[in-house]
Structures are given as C-alpha cells and as structure tokens.
Amino acid sequence: MESIQVERSLVLLKPDAVQRGLLGAIISRLENKGLKLVGIKMMQLDDDILASHYSHLADKPFFPEIASFMRLTPVVAICVEGLDGVDTLRRVCGITLAREADPGTIRGDLAMSIQANLIHASDSVETAQQEIERFFTKEELFDYTLVLSEYVYSRSERA
To answer: What's the domain range around 129?
Structure first.
C-alpha cells in the first residue's frame, strides 16, 4: 500500500475571485475540507513573477491575455497543507474548464470560464514546492498543530 504524505500546495485566488467577492467562500471551502492554511497574503503580480509562474505558457499566443488578466487586481496567495494535499486540493477545485467541472467543486459551483476560473492549484508535489518558494518566503509559512486534526484524520493518519 502506498504511503500517504502530508503535502503543501499553492493556491492563488485570481482576480475574478477578488472582484466577485468570493475570497471568504473559497477559503472556507478549503478549510471545511480539512486543509490547513500555513501561509496567506494578498499581492499584486508583476511581470517577473508572471513570466516565472507561467513560463510553460510564455510562448503561447494566449499568454499576454493570461498575464493581463492576472494583473487586473491583487491575488490572494495561500499555502495549504494536508494529507495527499496536492491531489486533494485539485479535486476540491475541479477541472480547469470551469463550466465542465463537477458540481460540488469550487469551479463547478462558482465559475464558467477556462481563464476566469477563480483559483489556481499546483499540479504536482514538485511544482507545488517550486510555486510555494516563488510566492512565499520561509518566514511567511508557519508550522503549527491544527487542534481539529483529530476530527479531520484518523489516528493512524495523524501518526
């Protein structure tokens, strides 16, 4: 049986989430799932961080539109932690094309677009580590015991 690990992942609440007043609703969904917030901040993205974060798309014809969209307002950067945290977060978010995302997911319930889909979530453990380092300093991330963890995970999962 494969071992389940505590993992951290990056979340970006995009300009559409900011403008639509959905920050609290989305953060509540993450916390209600049992993901622990270990870092959170609002920030305006600049060209350097956008070029780095979207380097895999920089040569695509739609990249300028993405960069422009992500600069419309500040975003909220969040680092979450949980067992199998990366995949758990992606399941909570739903697929990228929001109008096709399953009901019950953030995108499935609250969004319609492929770009204005409210939330970014890291796609792998490796990517998560790189993205977290891109958006947070070590001093901005916190290790603490979530007292409700005994009600989120079984005893064997907490060990």
So the answer is: 6-158
| CATH at 53 | 3.30.70.141
Residue 115 lies in a domain: yes
- Give pLDDT, residue 159: 72
Exposure b/e, 64-87, CB count within 10 A at least 16 = b: eebbeebeebebbbbbbbbbebbb
- Positions in the chain whose pLDDT score sits under 50: 1
Q: Active-site positions? A: 120
- Does residue 92 form part of some domain? yes
pTM: 0.95
Q: How far apart are CA 66 and CA 116, in angstroms?
A: 10
Q: Write down the residue that tokens 């739903």 correspond to.
A: 94
Question: For the chain, how many structural domains are there in total?
Answer: 1
**Residue 4 CA to chain centroid, in angstroms?**
20
Q: What is the pLDDT of residues 92-136, one digit of tens each?
A: 999 999 999 999 999 999 999 999 999 999 999 999 999 999 999
Token pair listed for 141: 């991330």
